[in-house]
Amino acid sequence: MKEFWDERYSQDQFAYGEEPNAFVKERLPLFEVGKILFPAEGEGRNSVYAAQLGWEVSAFDFSAKGKEKADELASSKNLKIDYRVCSFLEESYEREEFDVICMTFVHFDPKIKTEMHKRLDSYLKPGRHIIFEAFSKEHREINKINPEAGGPQDVDMMYSIEEIERDFSNYDIIELKKELVQLNEGFGHVGESSVIRFIGKKKE
What we know:
Layout: H1 2-9, H2 22-27, E1 35-38, H3 45-52, E2 56-61, H4 64-76, E3 82-85, E4 98-104, H5 113-122, E5 124-135, H6 139-145, H7 161-167, E6 171-185, E7 189-202
Parallel strand pairs: 1-2, 1-4, 2-3, 4-5
Antiparallel strand pairs: 5-7, 6-7
């Protein structure tokens, strides 16, 4: 899997574009600036956007090529982000270190999905927020018709509202919905897609 992402991120073009995810671009400015973590951040489009807004940014991904592209993008805007190369379950941050955790299209192996949610939750301060967008389980049928829409091949890596409610039961739900959206993110996400969008506030 690492080889797949290194190859994808080795191309000159940014796989998902240089602009931030539309949901992140719309929602992140509504929160007070602080420390933010981007898991599986790829080529850095969202973390660089957050740095432009004044956030203190941390990010990680297991692709060294992704980090190279992220550093390149940040440098082009005279910004810096703390980007670490590590796999899930190997990342290590301080307990309750962050004000926001932001995940877009982060699809975990089903065997570690719930465990990773718990790990990420431990890094978030009580009373602070998670911003999340990922493909819904219904998206798998869309992907079969239009592979350019992107998304994992394993439907168990995708999400349902019930999964979010279960794994983030210690959060007050600010926003949680499944909807059809038009994605136009580089060459990796193109076309109608079924997504889950979630904003939650960790209970104190």
